[in-house]
Each structure stands twice: as C-alpha cells, then as structure tokens.
Amino acid sequence: MTPLLPLQAEALDISFKLIPAIIVFLMMASFLVIGYIFKVADADGMWVAGRGIGNIENGMAIGANWMSAASYLGLAGLVALSGFYGLAFIVGWTTGYFVLLIFLAAQMRRFGKYTAPDFVADRFNSPTARALAAFTTLLIAYVYSVGQARGMGLVGQYVFGLDIIPMIVVMMTLTVGYLTLSGMLGATKNMAVQYVILILAFLAGIYVVGFTQGYSTILPQIEYGALINDLSTEFSAPFINSSYYIWIATAFSLIFGTCGLPHVLVRFYTVKSERTARWSTVWGLFFILLLYWGAPAMAAFGVDLFAQVNNLSPDAVYSGEQAMSGAEGDVIVVLAAQFADLPRWFVGLVAAGGMAAAIATTAGLFITASSAVAHDIYSELINPDATQRQQVLIGRATIVAIGALVTVTAFNPPALIGELVAYAFSLAGTVLFPMFFLGLWWENTNRQGALAGMTVGLLLWITSVINSVLPAYVGFLADIAGGSGQAIIPIYAQYVPPIGAALVGTPLVFLVTIAVSLVTPEPPLETKQMVRQCHSPEPMGQQQSAEDFVSSSGGETPADD
C-alpha cells in the first residue's frame, strides 16, 4: 500500500476526482429532476405526499430518511473511535423500530394528521401544546441536520478537492434548492432512489474492502470477528471508553428517541392505511438492518487499515501523535476503501452513498421543520385563514432559513456526527415520545398533564445542553465551569448527559404527565372516542382521520361496545 500522512480532516486524499465528481453530479441532477417532476402546490402533497405511498416504497423512504450521515458515516465512525460503546447506537437505532411497529405505527396512521405537533394539539386540545411540540420539532431538525451538513462537507472534500466550508455551503444549497421545489411527495420519491444508491454503495464498499484485503469472503458482517484479537482493546473491550451507565443511557435515549422523531412519525401519515403503516415499518427495519449489520465490520476494517497504512501498533491508533482523530473516524467508511488501494472511482461511489444518506435525512428533517412553522405555527396559531399557497410559501421560506442556520453551525460543530444526532434523539425521547405513547394508549391523558410533562422534558434537556455542551462555546459559561471542556455541574452531566438524558427524562415526563392528569379534569368524551378509534378493528378511508370518523359516526366507535 502507498503510505499516507496521518489524517487531520484533510486526510481524505483531497483533490478533484473526475469520475467521482461525475457520479455525484449525476446523482444530484437526478434528485433535482425527480423533485421537479413530483413538485407540489398544495398542503397534502407538501406535508404528507397525498397519503398515497405504498409499503415497500415507504419502507425504502424510512430507510433513506433514517440512514443519515450518522448511520452511513457516523455509526462506523463511533464504533471505530469508541468500540463497544458504539454498539449502543446500533442497539438503540434498531430496537426503537420494534417499539414503533408494536405501539405507534398503525395508531398514528389512524389518527391521521399532517404533523407530530398536529397530533399533540388535537389529542390534548391545546394550542400551547402545539407550540411546544412545534418548537421541539424545530430544535430536533436543527440539531440533527448539523451532522448531515458536516457529512456532506467531508464527502464533498474527497470528491471535489475543496475546503470543507465551501463544500458544506454548496451541498446544502443544492439540497435546499430541491426541497423548496419538491415538498414531501418529491422528497419521498427521491428517498427511494437515495436508499438504493446508499445501500449499494455501502454494501459494495464492505464486500470489496473485505475481500481484497483478505478480511472476509461471503459474510463480512460476521467474518470481521476474526480481526478483534488484532485490534486494540480500546476497540473491543466493554466499557473501556464509557461507563455502564452512559452505555445504558445512550441506548435507552436512542430507542425511545426513535419513537419520538417527528420526521420518522410523519412517514406513517403518508401511507394509504394502517396496514401499510405496519408493513412499511417492517420493510424499513429490514432496509436499515442491511447497513447496520455491516457497520461494525467496516469500522474494524478501517481501524486495521489505518494502523497498517500509518505503520502503527493497535494501541497507537487511539493514543499518541498519529492517533485517529474525530474527523478521521467520521469518514472511516470512505477511508477504508481509500486505504485498501481501490480505484478512485470506486472510493468515489462509496463517498457518494454517504452524500445520498445525508441528503435523504436532511430532506425529511427540513420538510418536518417547514410543516411545523407553516402549518402548526402560521396557519394554526397566527393566521387560521391562510391559503394553501401561503402555507407552501411559508414552508419553503422555512427550509431556506433553517438551511442557512444549519450550514453556519456545521462549520464548527460541537461533536462527532453520530453524537450530534444522538442529542436530537435524546430530546425526542424525553419530550415527544411520552406524549405520543400516552396520547394513543391512555385516553385520560389530558391537556394539563401534557403541558406539564412537555415543559419538564424540555427544561431537563435544555439544561443538560447548557451544562455540558455550551461551556465550549460561551465564554462566561466556560468560566463558571472552570474550563471550556468542563461541565458546570459535573454530577448533573454524569447522570443527565445530553446524549442520554432520556434515561432520566422519559420516566420523569411519564410520571409528571400521569400525576397531573389524575388530579385535573378528564379530557372531553370526543377526545376519548378518537383515542378508541385509533385501536378500532374497523378500516378507515385513505383520507380519513380518527376525528373525521368519530364526527361522521355520531360519536360512536366500535371500541365503545
């Protein structure tokens, strides 16, 4: 192999590469074309794709929407850099879909609204609850998207040979451009295409790297285990890089954060029926597992190749002057192919898969954020007489605005790609998941309980971020903490870390919501009947919601019998 200098963010053989550039150009052009073909002009198409998506296509969209830069690049990076701790992300990001499948997918579809804040507002009869849910949705979209923008910039560096900042600007501009044009319908069609690109690129990378380097033959997802003894204990030994508590807290937050992410739950509003919602979840989980099963193998290949190329001992990968940096870990998938001396066009294909993953997830996040502003805040709270054209225009303006904010933040992000995304999961699991679960499964959950629970959850997560993350960016907080890398209250950071705040926050929000609901008046009968309708065996129309069904049936549902 040709020796390479240790990577310091620029280690990605940064130079213009014609064939990879052509691959990325054609990929981006296809996204714009698909977005134009399926462009929308009404709210149904903008937010829920006309509720006409089938289960396999929606499963592919769930997979693409889910497998962000954090999955394609960051997941292998977390395993490469933190070994056993990285498995908490794989456990969390897959187990959450079983909870979704069993408890939320079909019920959410039967409730039948546009957005997650829509559900919260209508279920708890509260504009304030809508505002809190919309604010939480915007926070999630912002934090989550920063990691995607960073991933796009890192991949763009490899392909086009530019510095990371202009690459972030260019890639985010293209992404925002196609989203403002297409809306949810075009984004969903694109997500199916993006899934095919990213999974083929990832599987091609893991199989070719494994085979050409002698690591594996038929099943690299299993055969990589033979490498474990050759790698540092930092890679494989349990709880060397983290405590047992933080491992459990991270996995817990990711499991229930999955069930609270608005851009995931909105996928259930885009399908034809509750049966389609269930099956699209099953397909989505299958499509996700194709990548997640292989991420540890790609990490192991990359770590071993890093040591070989840089002439390092296994332990020197994690300590010393030539140790693997965070930037290197974030692109270990691309680096493994590069270190294996594979053709540039092939490494470019692997890189393009990472870009497709980042764009697909950014699309879902930005559409969700735009619906929170245009539908939940503007048309529901500010201007109830807003036309569909006005809503779509406000939604597109929101996409541009949040795109600009995410772009600037991605220039100097506060954590690794995977960690950034985990912050958003922790927020979703703490604030929104309890509202979705109790709202669908306990009909006596009321407005007062929901408002109290959401407020407690938001305060807990925000104080955790202020305590542990912001001292690195805000001077006076660093002074209070005693240094930019320190927490203001160390014991709070230990037990309520931003990445795992849901372990404390979610049970607390459940308890507060239930307690307040028990000591305040029950919700109206019509609200209870809507909850019952979400569990009714009687089928509903494609465009029908639980509220419509209860109204049209005179307030009676089969579940009342």
Automatic annotation (TrEMBL):
Residues 532-561 are annotated as: Disordered. It is a multi-pass membrane protein. The keyword Transmembrane helix applies. Pfam families: SSF. Keywords: Membrane, Transmembrane, Transmembrane helix, Transport. Residues 541-555 have a biased composition (Polar residues). Its main location: membrane. One of its GO terms (molecular function) is transmembrane transporter activity. It is found in: Membrane. The chain crosses the membrane at residues 14-38, 59-81, 87-106, 127-146, 158-180, 192-210, 244-270, 282-303, 345-373, 393-411, 423-442, 449-470, 499-520. One of its GO terms (cellular component) is plasma membrane. Belongs to the sodium:solute symporter (SSF) (TC 2.A.21) family. This is Cation/acetate symporter. The lineage of its organism: Archaea, Methanobacteriati, Methanobacteriota, Stenosarchaea group, Halobacteria.
